[in-house]
UniProtKB/TrEMBL annotation, chains A, B:
Signal peptide: none annotated. It comes from the Bacteria. It comes from Streptomyces populi. NCBIfam families: HTH_metalloreg. One of its GO terms (molecular function) is DNA-binding transcription factor activity. Residues 1-93 form the HTH arsR-type domain. Pfam families: HTH_20. InterPro entries: ArsR-like_HTH, HTH_ArsR_DNA-bd_dom, WH-like_DNA-bd_sf, WH_DNA-bd_sf. This is Transcriptional regulator.
Length: 114, 114
DNA sequence: GTGATACGCAACCAAAGGTTGCGAAAGGTG
DNA sequence: CACCTTTCGCAACCTTTGGTTGCGTATCAC
């Protein structure tokens, strides 16, 4: 049973810088490579590359506006990504539960044996 | 406002191969580099490197058993990682909600203006 | 027009994921 | 014991990815 996870979406949000970029875009509604890089510990060019990755993953979209290019989060796609995050969490949680109750069952079995 | 996310834990579970390894270890309770690599599209050596990363992140622990070294998931630490996953999901979800209701408010305001 | 601002493109660098190759320790079996 | 197999650990090497600097170009503001 695979996790059913879309690796492209995951790797897009797997990078810490990209996660912070999404945070910033969500908090401020929009942003450009320059404005984002001002609040991040990386250069504008690095931010641009990340924006390209996020764009390919469909998580952001951009519109040229004069001499600058504005980016904003694609809400539907981010919602999808969030859903996948939650689903992995839930899956692992369930497995952890199973492991725990299994251990419990074994412990009880051994107690009755004695 | 930062996400409060532990980047070490994230990058540990950010890699698709490592996620599948955790899945396998959870499903089968334990495993070695060799048994894991048999079910993954990578070599034993690659798996070993990933196990080292997971070990440093505290997500797995290992015990030498004869000529092999068995690994198992550290449940507490994985539970912590899952909690962080969920928390990011929840945060983004909340922000998406806010964006949506904000847009709604603006739309309503413009309607009344007309 | 001139200067500042925002961008795109290219070269280059370091770290991470992955591979092959090899030597050594632990187990089975004659 | 001797031999063969299994499992591991270490080292060299390759490719991708996140990051940098440098430079040319388009746009805005005066």
């Amino acid at each position: 049973m695979s996790t059913g996870i879309d690796d492209d979406l995951w790797s897009a949000i797997g990078d810490p810088t990209r996660r912070r970029m999404i945070d910033l875009l969500l908090a401020e509604g929009q942003g450009t490579a320059t404005t984002l890089s001002a609040r991040l510990p990386v250069t504008r060019q690095a931010v641009t590359k990340h924006l390209t990755v996020l764009d390919r993953a469909g998580l952001v979209r951009s519109t040229p506006a004069g001499r600058e290019r504005r980016y904003h989060v694609d809400e539907a796609q981010l919602a999808r990504a969030v859903a996948q995050l939650q689903s992995v969490g839930t899956l692992w949680d369930a497995r952890l539960q199973r492991v725990k109750s299994l251990a419990e069952a074994i412990r009880r079995a051994e107690n009755t044996k004695k």
